[in-house]
Amino acid sequence: MEDNIISMQNICFEVSFKDSKALILDNINLNIKKGDFVAIVGPSGSGKSSLMNIIGLLDNKSSGIYKIDNVDIDSLSSHKKAKLRCNYFGFIFQRYNLIHSLNALENVQVPTIYKGVKEKYRKERAISLLESLSLGHRLYHKPSELSGGQQQRVSIARALINGSQVILADEPTGALDSKSGHDILNILKHLNNEGTTVIIVTHDENIAKEAKRIIQISDGKITKDKRVKAIEDKLLLDSNFKDDLSNLEFNTNSLFKKSYFTIIKDSMNIALNALLYNKMKSFFCMLGIIIGIISLILVLSISRGAESKVLGSIASLGTNTISIFSGSRFSNKRHNQVQTLNFNDVKAVAKLPFVHSASPLVQSQAMFRTDKDAASAMLYGVSEKIFDVYGLKMKKGRRINEYDILYNKTYCVIDDQTEENFFKGEDALHKVVFVNDIAFEIIGVVDTRGAVFIRQNSMQVYIPHSAYMTRVYKQDYITSLVIRLKDDVSPQKALINIEDLLIKRHKEKDFFSFSSDALVKSRTQTQSTLSLLTVLVAIISLVVGGIGVMNVMLVSIKQRVKEIGIRMSVGASERDIMYQFLIESIVICLIASVLGLTLSLILVYLINAFSSNITLLLEFDAIALSVVISTLIGLIFGFMPAKKASLQNIIEALSKD
After folding, report:
1. What angle do CA 296, 298, 302 make, to 5 degrees?
2. How many CB atoms lie within 10 A of CB 70?
3. CA–CA separation, 496 vs 451, rounded Å?
4. pLDDT tens per residue, range 344-363
5. Among 45, 107, 236, 515, which is most exposed with the fewest C-beta within 10 angstroms?
């Protein structure tokens, strides 16, 4: 016979209470050889279950030496102990300890997940085992749909799937009727006859009599150790699925090492299964993230839409429009007293090779009235070039031309909003209106909606600058000079040349300038700041959702302590459990982000389809940002629940209902 596969010397196990300690196992000395069938018997509270838990590495001894195949357990990390449970031991529990959310086939495969067996092979192996245990017709039934005997058979299949060398059975027939109990016992005897070591804990003397060796324990001490049958020299059951302990060497290079891809894939499958099993709880867990994603997407879309609309209007002019004003700046109280800009300045600037068009501009408030109504309007004295400079398009009629300016014609062009509001939907074309009591004929209506440099909240009236300066107001200077540059001209370089020209003409710099290029930069900077602030607000809502995920995950872990204990007992390490719940948290957030994105797309489409005043622009970076943030939230807020799950005590977890 081979050496002992289990060797225990002076094993003690104490349980601490608030003010005292209880000695459960007292100097246990035990050696078990390969192929043995050992029954550990004794009254309730004698310590037999605690002994089995220590043998199976479900619990830790307080003192003594414990070796498995001459490897001292004290030399192993918790991770390596978990892998030893996974590859060396198979557990059969009195209460079956099946995961309720999984069917029979899935329950049997659980240990192979932590061993790293590929899905195809573990499924084939599980089906083969269940069929050999007469459960081929119950593969896809949940534990609640199986009888006690059938659940115990599933538990046995789970114990065998990794080719366990030692089967540990704690009262395996205690919850079964006599026939089911007899069947389970026959299965254990068959496994032992094939060479598997079986250690069974029982208080039933009839079951103990079937063992080859009976160990009696009382008050934490072995009081009797009797061999009733010899150990037969048999091959281990299904040796192709067993790992020789000496080859494993308990290091990270062992053959049961898993790739991170396998870990993530299996954890995602576990997470999805858990989410589907608790659909309503999962939905409420996701709700905060969904709302946060919708908020983030809509805020970014509204911001981008507004930015695109404004910058689009500026782009319609080209980022090459320059305005020259008299004085030093708008905030200067003497700004309106400086009257040095004139028509000769306009002509000189217009001759520069990089200038597309230039127009003088004079403006003031004026009374605009008809026989029926009167209102204050913004009056502009302009040249025919103003429409080119500002990129204004005629809605109807014609615009002011050189002939009108030359002969001081009393013609005017109004904007479309003035026509709509002042004329109550009537056609304003060719109607006569009075501007400061001077009659003007409306010859055109210009579309100014969305125009950047035009005031949107007041009536706009355009007349020839000659009529403005001779008929309406008496003045020989212009308020400002507006210039449009040719395409592909640098606004900065052009402005330097224009200022140099005007300084030479005026002998000083008695003017200041403003360019659409500066407006674009200012608008972009302002919009970026606003976007950042709104995104931060949306991210805060996502963080709140993340806190909700964390709280729900903590509640979920509390409800799934039993499942955690089962997984750890069949081979899951602390790291495996942490990965599982961390990935579950990330999956929750990713699914929530997909749902949030889908709803956001629908809302963006509906708002754009039915609203003429609001334009939403959804870009890829907004989608990517929401996915990245939701993933980070799942990672950050899932860490604490995942860590808490990984630190569960196996025995305490298994005792939960």
Report:
1. 120
2. 11
3. 26
4. 888 899 899 988 888 898 88
5. 45
